[in-house]
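S.,

Sequence below, as promised.
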Amino acid sequence: MPFLFVAPRSAELTHAVSKTFLRTVGALAVIAIAQFAIQILGGPFIDVFSLISKEVVIPGYVHRARLDIAGFEGYLIRSNGMFFLEPSIASQFFALAAILALRIAPASVPLFIAALLFTGSGTGIIALAVGVLGIAITGTSKERVLSVLAASLGLAVLTFTGLLLAFFSRTSEFQTEGSSASFRFLDPWEHVAKFMLDFPAAIMTGYGPGGASLTAVTYGTGVNYTFTPKLVIEYGIVVGLGCTMAMLLFVMKSTDLPLAGRLVILAMTFALSGALGQPASAILVWCFCQPQSHLKTPRATRWDPLFPRSLPTLEASPKRW
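The prediction came back faster than expected:
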């Protein structure tokens, strides 16, 4: 990652970053599938925090959730790929990997789809749907056909494993107070509206860093502030909307990713998991996006630490070596 800040951006470098991303997330997808398979076979749920002492883990830091499958009487925990903070974030990374793999490594798409389904998370399904929309707009005919086949595969897995009813049952969360969907998609904006009505003097300036904690306590602690609501509450509506627009333009204009990949990153940043300052979201943007100045700098004048045009040999410059 440190080299990505100074490396000249190009389609080749974006491709290399994408391949590294797919290899890494692919390994975690295999782990997620194994987590679920072990439980189906009667074994325990295994992740990093089940292998270390609970005395060194902050209570409640790692979120676990049950997954109910029709006809299965056992207690199943949704897969999190072992190293993700929660199944929801894992599912979003699997969704982005599935979208990027359509162009780079189509054979790995079923792996990411299966891992996504075993997380039992609706946010991954939303991220995948956003990516498919991007493919429908700008994708090639091959990518469109592959996306249809992948969706069909996912539907078949959902049907034959009994997960279909589990996913559809979660749609009621949008009408249920205190649910995961309410925390992510409804409550943050309701808090912003209440904040603007109750504290009009702070609309322009906000409460300052950490101010969202005050509104969370005032209006209810069960809320997951995403990017824009947190900015508006802490820094005011002008800064909040300005930073939102800047981030939108930054992601859309500073990467060689296909439109589908950029749309998934935007969905993750602004709606699904992008709490302001959350490392999982910030690192994702850093890896795939760079300021426009790096893209426009002439090759002859930019420092290239990763791919130098020539390397000195021992014979040519013994003193330098």
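Residues 292-321 have pLDDT under 50 and may be disordered.

Coffee later?
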